[in-house]
Amino acid sequence: MRIVVDENMLGTELLFAPYAEVIHGSGRHLKPEVLRGVDALLVRSVTSVNAQLLSQANRLTFVGSATIGTDHVDQAYLKQLGIDFAYAPGCNATAVGEYVLMALLTLAVSSNTALTTRTFGIIGAGHTGQAVAQRLVALGLQVYVCDPWVHVTDPALMQVSLSQLIQACDVITLHVPLTTEGVYSTHHLFDTALFESLLPNTWLINCARGAVVQTAAALAWQTKHPEAKLVCDVWEHEPTPSLDLLTATAIATPHIAGYSIEGKLRGTWQLYQALAAKQGWPAVPLNELLNQAQIAIQDVVTVPPVLDTVDLLSVCNRVYNLSKQDGLFREMVKQMDGFDTMRQQHRYRRELSAIRILSEQAETVRFMSQLGFSN
User: Going by CATH, does the domain composed of 2-87+260-292 fall within 3.40.50.720?
Assistant: First the structure.
């Protein structure tokens, strides 16, 4: 069996090499001829899986995407060809939840704003939206959720319509798939009209898909409301984002909010589970894969009984410093292929669980574990 895999996926050799020939390639620049004589294709969101890409795939029976989104895959065409498809819902939810947490702490410290003075809205209550909600609730914040497809059962969350959320919240974070059809289409969901209805000092975080936010509308809104804050991890027209929008953002990164070592391994593992079931390969427990990949606690930190926002951000920065990533991105994006280069080099990020927390107060340890740290 021959499998073509995106060169930036982690754990492919550990999982697939015992049963198949693993061929690594560039996901962004994958050519149709590479798929001749290939049985399975494993991609990420940078690869558009469509009729053009599969035009020379004469043996393909399985396509897997190590992502939570599927807008880059023509699933109807795969079904027409009888090709099985699998993806990895929830694989990077923890990483995205932690990214949003760190973005909020960074904005709070840089603007000298107490998070408790703000009201938070989450648009999209899937895996990543729930991961964000878990951390906001742990911080004791007021949280509204909007998702017409998901019924929220957590009593700490208030489920409301989109218009109600926009009117109530001055921090909004986006976690929806990119869709172009139906009454709940998300393409350019944040257009000029919706931006004009936002509270003037809103913080808007987009970790969904770039085209959920209309670039021109975002720029006009930011110009009109300089006190507002934009955090963009995703961009229209990746890998060539609007430099004007980049300049206008408070925090900018190149579609790496979900890029943790643990998240990448979970995504690869979920695809292995699907292909193993199809091929009759043995199951591999996730913990076994993490152990084989030598994912372990990297630090132990003793924290005071009471932590303020600066303290929390300081501990988070020991795992992953979002401000440094922002600065690096602003420099690298000026280079040819800088967007993709930074993504390709982004292989070291751990999740907060890489730090074990010690404190004289058990309640403090419990609180930090709710944010994602180990205890």
Answer: yes
